[in-house]
Every structure is written in C-alpha cells, then in structure tokens.
Design goal:
The protein has about 250 residues and is mostly beta strands. The chain folds into 2 domains: about 5-115, Immunoglobulin-like (Sandwich); about 125-210, Immunoglobulins (Immunoglobulin-like, Sandwich). About 15% of the residues lie in helices and about 45% in strands. It contains 3 helices and 19 strands. The protein has helices at about 180-185, 220-240, 240-250; strands at about 5, 15, 20-25, 30, 35, 40-50, 60-65, 65-70, 80-85, 95-100, 105-115, 125-130, 135-140, 145-150, 155, 165-170, 170-175, 185-195, 200-210. The strands form 4 sheets. The chain has a 6-stranded mixed sheet with strand order 4-5-11-10-7-8, with no helix packed on it. It has a 5-stranded antiparallel sheet with strand order 1-9-6-3-2, with no helix packed on it. It starts with a strand and ends with a helix. Mean pLDDT is about 85; it is low at about 5-20.
Length: about 250
C-alpha cells in the first residue's frame, strides 16, 4: 500500500460532515465507508470548518489505523489531502482519521471496504505415498466472502463418508485425505469458490499416489554395526596371547 500526498485541488465525489472538520472523498462514500477495488485510487481530503479562527490551531493530522501519516508542511493547514494508490488487499478495513493537531477530539474517519477475489486459478502437482496422509490447501480470502466446494474428477466429494476432512477459516480452505489409497484417492481435485461478485474460481490439484517406500533405519543400523565391531575388537584384544600361541604353533 502506497500513501502519497496530494497538494493540488482534486475532483471530489462526496462530502461527509463532521463537527469541525470535513472529509471529502473520491470515490463516493456510503456513510463512513468507501467501497473500492484493488488497483484503484482513493482520494481523501480533509478541510477545517470555515467558522474556525485562521490560526495554527487549524493544523491537520492524518492517521492510518492509529499510525500518524507523514505530511508536508503545506499540506497541513486548512486543507489536507491523501491518495491511497494503488489500493491493495491489505487496505481492506483500513481506517483513515483526520483530526486537529490542537484538539484530537475534533476528528472525522473513513474506512475502506476493498473488494477482491480469492487468489486461485492455478494447478499444483501433488505426490503422496500410499497409506500416507495428504492435505490440499487453497487461499479463499476474499471480500465479499466466497463459498467453497471440493470436487474430485469434476464430481462433488461426499464429505459425509468420513473419507475426507475439510476446514475453512475464511482465509485458507483445506481438504485432508487420510491413509491414501491409489485406487480410491488418485485423481484430480478441485477447490472451487463461488461469489456473487467474481463468479466461479478454482484451483486444481493433480494427486499421484506412489508406492510406499520402506525407509532403511540408518541410525539403528549404524549403531548396531558399531557395537558388533567394538565387540570383535575387544574379543581379539582379550585373547591376543592365545592367538599368538596358535600362530607360533602353525
């Protein structure tokens, strides 16, 4: 998110009134909310009430989610402008507050309602050993929220069978397949989201089930070899005299 300072008079779409400061915005605000899209530009301009005395008491400050925005000196008196350009997903829910530096109780705020789709529309190759578990994850964070469905080979999964487990916290949707079997679970899975704003979007997982590999227990094997070697060496040392006698007789 980039916040740049606008020092020239801008074409404004809406005026929302406050007690002593007024926040003007483009695009038009609905109450204290501005609905916009990612990659768009939002312009905010704060002006002091004309009835106030012209003095340094009219110096303005901008805050974004409680953090002070750095303004040039010429953009603080009577009229102060900000540009949010470009708008990003991280700007959703951001609250911009304009207030008098000399009286923080004189303020006005605008909240951004940024609409954005889920980040999907790609394909992922997944390889899993038979009898292992596999977890498929997709990013479903969106505004407005989306509904999520899981499919296998273009057919809706029967999530009541107990063969699959799903979770969705509004940010990530996951499908867990426990104890994978090649003849049952290998195939193409789809995480499909539906939205009244963005329509249908999906992410595809091509799941390949491989033969289970018997893992060689390297650690225990090395330890066993070391024990055997040490035992042999100790046996040789303890019987060295007998070995020397046998060698002389031969």
């Amino acid at each position: 998110m980039k916040v740049s300072v606008c020092v020239t008079l801008l074409l404004l779409c809406c005026i929302s009134h406050a007690k002593a400061v007024t926040v003007e915005s483009c695009p038009k605000a609905a109450g204290s909310f501005i609905q916009t899209q990612v990659e768009e530009t939002v312009t905010l301009t704060c002006v002091t009430d004309g009835s106030m005395d012209p003095s340094n008491q009219n110096e303005l400050q901008w805050y974004r989610n409680g953090d002070l925005v750095d303004l040039k000196e010429e953009n603080r008196l009577y009229r102060s402008s900000l540009c949010v350009q470009p708008v990003t997903r991280e700007d959703n829910g951001a609250i911009f507050t304009c207030q008098l530096k000399g009286d923080a109780s004189v303020n006005n705020s605008i909240e951004l309602d940024v609409q954005f789709p889920p980040d999907l529309n790609d394909t992922e190759e997944v390889f899993v050993e038979e009898t292992s578990n596999v977890v498929l994850s997709c990013d479903v964070l969106a505004n407005p929220p989306v509904t999520v469905a899981w499919k296998k080979d273009d057919e809706l999964l029967d999530l009541t069978s107990g063969s699959y487990k799903t979770t969705n916290n509004g940010i990530t949707a996951q499908l867990t397949v426990p104890k994978v079997k090649r003849d049952v679970h290998q195939g193409t899975y789809t995480c499909e989201t539906t939205s009244s704003v963005y329509g249908i979007r999906n992410k595809t997982f091509k799941v390949t089930v491989e033969d289970k590999v018997l893992k060689f227990p390297l650690g225990p094997t090395i330890a066993g070899v070391v024990v055997v070697v040490c035992t042999i060496i100790i046996a040789i040392i303890s019987r060295r005299d007998q070995i020397k006698k046998c060698c002389k007789l031969n």
